[in-house]
Amino acid sequence: MVFSSLFFIFAFLPATLILYYSLGKQLRNIVLLTASLFFYAWGEPVYVLLMCSSIMINYCIGTLLVRDDASRQKRKFFLIISLVFNLGCLAYFKYFGMIINTIAPIGGWNLNAGTPALPIGISFYTFQILSYVIDVYRGKIRPQKSLILFALYITMFPQLVAGPIVNYGDIESQLADRSINFKKFYSGMQRFLCGLAKKVLLANNIGLLWSEVKAMPGTEISVLMAWAGIIAFTLQIYFDFSGYSDMAIGLGKMFGFRFKENFRYPYTSQSISEFWRRWHISLGSWFKEYVYIPLGGSRVGKWKLIRNLFMVWFLTGLWHGASWNFVLWGLYFGTLILIEKLFLQKSMTRWPKIVHHVYLLLFVVIGWVFFEFSNLTDGLGFLWIMFGVGGNGLIDNQAIVKLKAYAVLYIVCIIAASPWPKMLALLFKRIHCNIYRLAVNVYYSVLMFFLTTYMVSSTYNPFIYFRF
Predict the structure, then answer these.
(1) Residue 266: its H or E element
(2) Is residue 428 predicted with pLDDT exceeding 60?
(3) Is residue 333 part of a domain?
(4) How many domains does the chain contain in total?
(5) Model confidence pTM above 0.90
(6) Which Pfam families does the annotation name (predicted)?
(7) Selected catalytic residue, list 320, 356, 357, 432
């Protein structure tokens, strides 16, 4: 089940909200936990058992870590059990085929291992479980005594299948007691509709262009067409993923939770390092907290800094998928960030802003080529076409036709990926507060009508991060 489906919006969500608010405060967590398990079982009925097993095992380990008779060796042993179990499940379901198919040629074995069906959201909820167990081990948080509340933390459907990754410490108090009022609920509904619009109206439509370009033979793609296509993907993946995060944050508010932001206009960044502080913030924070800082962070010598960065970015790439193109993509950005830290940081302060933006967008767009093409040969071939080697020349009529057809959508996407709309809205609110309130209500009513109409008539509704 996805948020951008008619069943979710007009059946599952209303039914859950009605039960949640009508059955009283004492049953709200039970309602939300039951709804979350149903939500997951809708597409993954078998893997609900895996998730429940993981919940039970890690709940018990969290309790064992703080027992009075638990020595340091025992606590470390329990932590290792949790790491082995959780990372073992992730490795088996996500990386088994990749591991076997990589080592088989080295050993001269004739194997072609298929990858088991990937449980949706396993990368996200595994990281949440790991952060909980590690923080209990470190003494940063107390273990959750209630199995129901711990299970709710892991299974909560607003952020279960595609984040943001929520640390237990950030919502510990909210699990037991949270304030709910109409203002927060209405704000959450608005945030959900904004995210839904990003996904349905922008990501899906600009993604159609990329799907057409990607399906074309390389000999028929001009330089202009290649850039038009990959820029379309650059916009698609942003609106696809940030739209989902907006919907998750909005849903959280509707149920009384506050989730941290996951995107802050990343394409307006001035450097690669800043871009990754603004893109998928919860994942970057997780790797910083549980990998980068334990390795020593940046307060080490040059060679250890290189090791730390490459370790983090190797794992970041690998987290995104069981394919070597993701590892290459991760190491690509790790290398760029290392170059900035060691060589460019001082000189970049003297660059004009336009140079910063060109530099940032150029390397990010190139990076999305590595991300999108699982076959490295195809990806490198597409890069060659982008820079004028092979392909169908510099400009062709087909590219011009496509650009004319998508020109308005490009402009809307570029504006929507910037803070300008929000800044203008706040300015208008300051000048005409009463008119602003009326305009907002009309806007969201009209937006809901268009979203419903589009979802009824459209069949193209992919979600990129579901495969992670």
Answers:
(1) none
(2) yes
(3) yes
(4) 2
(5) yes
(6) MBOAT (PF03062)
(7) 320
